[in-house]
Design a protein that fits this description.
Order of helices and strands: HHH
Number of strands: 0
Radius of gyration: 18 Å
Number of helices: 3
Distance between the termini: 66 Å
Largest sheet: none
Low-confidence stretches: none
Helix content: over 70%
Strand content: under 5%
């Protein structure tokens, strides 16, 4: 019988593969709404990492929670920057510019 860590690793790898395949097959027209959805998921991860870091159950959970907060924050901010840049591509340009 596989251990708990092996099961979790299997689920993580399977989710990574499925996620990659789903994202890869999305048409370019849908990338902006997909990025917005990804930002919402990243924000949920940010809230979860703040809860973990704030619980301070152990030194390891505090360190890993803090790292997760930093990574999730960078992911959310970067996602909004990229989404904003992509949305600017769809705006009409003025004739003189």
């Amino acid at each position: 019988m596989p251990s708990n860590l092996e099961s979790q690793l299997f689920v993580f790898l399977l989710a990574t593969f499925v996620g990659f395949e789903v994202i890869r097959r999305v048409s370019p027209l849908l990338h902006t709404p997909l990025m917005s959805l990804t930002n919402a998921i990243s924000a949920i991860s940010l809230v979860g990492s703040i809860v973990i870091a704030g619980a301070e159950k152990s030194q390891l959970s505090l360190i890993l929670g803090t790292i997760a907060v930093v990574c999730s924050t960078a992911n959310v901010v970067g996602g909004f920057v990229i989404t904003d840049r992509m949305l600017k591509m769809f705006k009409k340009r003025e004739p003189g510019k």
